[in-house]
């Protein structure tokens, strides 16, 4: 397989020379394991490389730059949009061996880590000094900070605490010509030059390979209270979201679940709900015990009006965990389905949430596709899971049409087509719905400055200047 690499055996030998032969893999099993992410899209790379330090990544990019080899940065491989899926003849650069905590400094409230550290391990480290790393994607137990930075990952807590970008103080990266850069600073303030750190966060591996990151930490909230509210319809639940957002309280999390989500919950959760339940809100309040308890009482009073048919407050850790487990089990339940899940992450202003949910239901009925919707309602960010029979070309086509209509509706409501997953390859056909040709050209120019030969994760995040119809056909033809 190595022969498919530009430069063939000579390039392989160069990689082995800088990394050692035991960090350069071309065997069929490894190539297959690194051919996909959490989407069904697959493409085997020519080689998988496992750098052990920043200098290794620098050497890899320098070799690739000389030989024009496409590099696919990869961390945990849990991405939902095909971002870490290789292109033919490419080298996957897996950061997973680079998982050291370089510096943990509680006094400065920061931690510097290598890009391959598992996200949950950062919070574990912070916990030892009463600190907290808030971004918590549902995949925290196996995704890695490099991937989180590249996708600007978020999660339920982003309502109160913000997203990955809000915690990145500085980065160490290698850009497309093999040059190393250090961006940002170690202080909580800094305004020298352009903010390259924020530009690289969310750039999906197309501008630079992140090798190290300095992250901001915050004090750990000692206590939390969870409230579950049941409604007879989704629009009442969306009004509940607005009630919360109009109050002086900012919950750590405010999640919405529609009737289809409730239908796939485990039997004991469903039995604990009134039979008329068609939508749920889960609200988490944190702070010191008194503060969280007072906020919970205030919100419960506000939410317990005629439209809410059931309201449960979980005060203990175990009770809370039980309520949240029902929410986290949803992704796993959908994954077990015989249908393929197309998982979207659209966002609208919270005041338009009810219209979005109504539109999703109209589209699901029109295209006769099962759709399960849940997500981070406090951010207006819903996961719209379109469940498709993978053996049916007609269903795939209807799903593609539905996506087009969904994204158009989201944009008409003042929203964005991706809140946290990014574009990867899966959403390339739709980027031009949101961004003007002028903006796209500027972005292509920035890409060329960082990556003059276009070797860093080609064909991801920013569509090239071929027509939207080209991407439409390319994607629907291969998905
Ligand atoms: C069950 C489940 C739940 C999820 N829940 C959430 C959620 O709540 N919130 C959320 O935001 N996402 C969620 N995701 C999506 C996914 O976990 C995130 O996008 C995550 O940030 C990807 O991290 P990763 O380490 O797996 O990256 P990968 O999948 O390996 O890569 C993702 C992208 O980042 C690039 N990349 C990876 N490492 C680097 C690097 N070092 N330098 C430059 N570019 C790099 C890749 O090329 C690719 O484009 C979920 C996924 C699953 C399967």
Kindly list the characteristics that best describe this protein.
single chain; alpha+beta; Uridine Diphospho-n-acetylenolpyruvylglucosamine Reductase, domain 2; Uridine Diphospho-n-acetylenolpyruvylglucosamine Reductase, domain 3; Alpha-Beta Plaits; seven-stranded antiparallel β-sheet; 17 helices; globular; binds flavin-adenine dinucleotide
Give a written overview of the molecule.
- This protein is of the alpha+beta class and 479 residues long.
- Among the domains are: 2-94, Uridine Diphospho-n-acetylenolpyruvylglucosamine Reductase, domain 2 (2-Layer Sandwich); 101-219, Uridine Diphospho-n-acetylenolpyruvylglucosamine Reductase, domain 3 (2-Layer Sandwich); 221-327, Alpha-Beta Plaits, CATH 3.30.70.2190.
- Helix content is 38%, strand content 21%.
- It has 17 helices and 18 strands.
- It has helices at residues 8-19, 28-33, 54-67, 119-127, 145-151, 158-161, 196-200, 234-246, 259-263, 267-271, 289-303, 317-336, 353-366, 393-412, 428-434, 437-450, 468-478; strands at 24-25, 47-49, 71-74, 91-94, 101-105, 110-114, 131-132, 168-175, 180-184, 208-216, 218-219, 223-231, 253-257, 279-287, 308-314, 340-347, 371-376, 381-388.
- The strands form four sheets. A seven-stranded antiparallel sheet has the order 15-12-14-13-17-18-16, sandwiched between helices. A five-stranded antiparallel sheet has the order 5-6-10-8-9. The chain has a four-stranded mixed sheet with strand order 1-2-4-3.
- Strand 17 and strand 18 (381-388) form a beta hairpin.
- Helix 1 runs antiparallel to helix 3 (54-67), helix 13 packs antiparallel against helix 14 and helix 15 (428-434) runs antiparallel to helix 17 (468-478).
- The two termini are 24 Å apart.
- The structure holds flavin-adenine dinucleotide.
- Residues 37-38, 72-80, 83-84, 95, 115, 137-139, 143-144, 146-148, 150-151, 153-155, 204-205, 209-210, 331, 420-421, 457, 460 line the site of flavin-adenine dinucleotide.
- Flavin-adenine dinucleotide (FAD) binds at residues 37-38, 72-80, 83-84, 95, 115, 137-139, 143-144, 146-148, 150-151, 153-155, 204-205, 209-210, 331, 420-421, 457, 460.
């Amino acid at each position: 397989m190595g022969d498919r690499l530009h430069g063939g055996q000579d390039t392989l030998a160069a990689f082995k020379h800088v990394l050692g032969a035991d960090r350069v893999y071309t065997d069929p099993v490894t190539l297959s394991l690194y051919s996909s992410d959490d989407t069904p899209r697959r493409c085997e790379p020519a080689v998988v490389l496992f750098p052990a330090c920043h200098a290794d990544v620098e050497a890899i990019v320098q070799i690739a730059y000389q030989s024009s080899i496409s590099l696919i940065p990869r961390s945990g491989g849990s991405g939902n949009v095909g971002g870490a899926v290789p292109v033919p003849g490419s080298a996957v650069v897996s950061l997973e061996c680079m998982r050291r905590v370089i510096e943990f400094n509680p006094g400065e409230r920061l931690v510097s880590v290598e890009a391959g550290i598992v996200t949950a391990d950062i919070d574990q480290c912070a916990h030892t000094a009463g600190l907290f790393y808030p971004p918590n994607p549902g995949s925290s137990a196996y995704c890695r900070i490099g991937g989180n930075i590249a996708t600007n990952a978020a999660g339920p807590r982003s309502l109160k605490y913000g997203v990955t970008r809000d915690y990145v103080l500085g980065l160490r990266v290698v850009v497309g010509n093999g040059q190393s850069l250090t961006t940002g600073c170690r202080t909580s303030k800094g305004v020298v030059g352009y903010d390259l750190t924020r530009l690289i966060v969310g750039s999906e591996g197309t501008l630079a390979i992140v090798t190290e990151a300095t992250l901001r930490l915050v004090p750990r909230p000692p206590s939390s209270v969870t409230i579950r509210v049941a409604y007879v319809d989704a629009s009442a639940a969306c009004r509940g979201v607005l009630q919360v957002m109009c109050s002086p309280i900012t919950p750590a999390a405010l999640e919405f679940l529609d009737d289809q989500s409730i239908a796939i919950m485990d039997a004991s959760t469903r039995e604990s709900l009134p039979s008329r339940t068609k939508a749920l809100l889960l609200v988490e309040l944190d702070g010191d015990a008194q503060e969280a308890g007072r906020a919970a009482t205030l919100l419960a009073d506000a939410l317990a009006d005629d439209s809410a048919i059931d309201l449960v407050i979980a005060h203990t850790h175990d009770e809370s965990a039980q309520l949240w487990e029902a929410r986290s089990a949803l992704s796993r339940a959908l994954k077990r389905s015989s249908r393929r899940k197309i998982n979207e992450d659209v966002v609208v202003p919270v005041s338009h949430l009810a219209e979005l949910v109504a539109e999703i239901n109209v589209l699901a009925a029109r295209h006769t596709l099962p759709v399960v919707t849940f997500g981070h309602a406090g951010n207006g960010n819903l996961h719209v899971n379109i469940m498709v029979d993978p053996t049916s070309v007609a269903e795939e086509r209807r799903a593609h049409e539905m996506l087009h209509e969904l994204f158009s509706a989201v944009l008409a409501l003042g929203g964005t087509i991706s809140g946290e997953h990014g574009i990867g390859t899966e959403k390339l056909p739709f980027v031009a719905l949101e961004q003007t040709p002028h903006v796209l050209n500027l972005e292509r120019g920035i890409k060329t400055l960082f990556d003059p030969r276009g070797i860093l994760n080609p064909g991801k995040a920013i569509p090239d200047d071929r027509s939207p119809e080209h991407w439409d056909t390319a994607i629907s033809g291969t998905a």
